Protein: Acetyl-CoA:oxalate CoA-transferase
Amino acid sequence: MQNFRPPVVKRLGLDYETLRSHGFDPVYVSISGYGADGPYADHPATDSVMQADSGLMHTNRDEQNMPQRVGVLLADIATGVYAAQACTAALLHRFRFGTGTHVEINLFNVCCALQSTAISEEVIAGQIDKQAASAPNGVFEAADGKIAVLALSNDHFLRISEALGLPHWRTDPRFATNELRLQHKAELHADLVAALRRHTVAELEALFQQHSVLHARVRTANDVVHHPQAQHLSTFLSMKQPDFGDVLLAATPWPRAHLAPPAAPRAGEHSARILADLGLSSHEIESLAERRIIGL
Structure:
């Protein structure tokens, strides 16, 4: 697996075709910014660059249509997930047919795949203005924090009305349908804000749970780590990293033994073993290290 830009890996003689010419038949994964060829193949790409260039910032624009960067390294993370899926398929192919495969993944295509529906809606349907699909829908201030509240149907809307003691919503013609509620969202949200500010987040959670209202408190990272369901599911694990200390990690999101992962290897820790497995002598490995081509 490598993520050099295409000209670099060829210059190093570590590209898939060169390895094949030396008798190897690997499952080989290449991750790049824009792919192996084309007008952008040699362009440098980081997560932020890709979020802008793939339209992801535009898709994530706010209600004033200002493009916004997604607050996590989404391009990098999603590319890793797609690469793992494709690599697994290639390994299954090798197990079944006995041949290696060159898996090529690039950040640009991954970011486009993530927002396929949004791009289609804008290009085909001309849906440019960014707004919620329903009202009420948003993040609102409670007496002691923030809470997300939304209604996706008339029934959901009536549940909010009942939970917060807002009976006039039921008869107000401006709020009779979702389309009308979107037209009068400012007035609707003003009513909702006034009602929410009379309660703490905990009080609202109890009310909304009782009336099956779609809601969630807006949590900080520390809140999420101590989330009751995270505690129940062992969502987070701690590992000890030499020369650093305890590291908090989110566990794999599928059922498995709840064991802390091993510490990450130090840079170069396994280089000598890997090169020896590839047939290099100890003298050759030492020579590479002395010339600072590899680290040990």
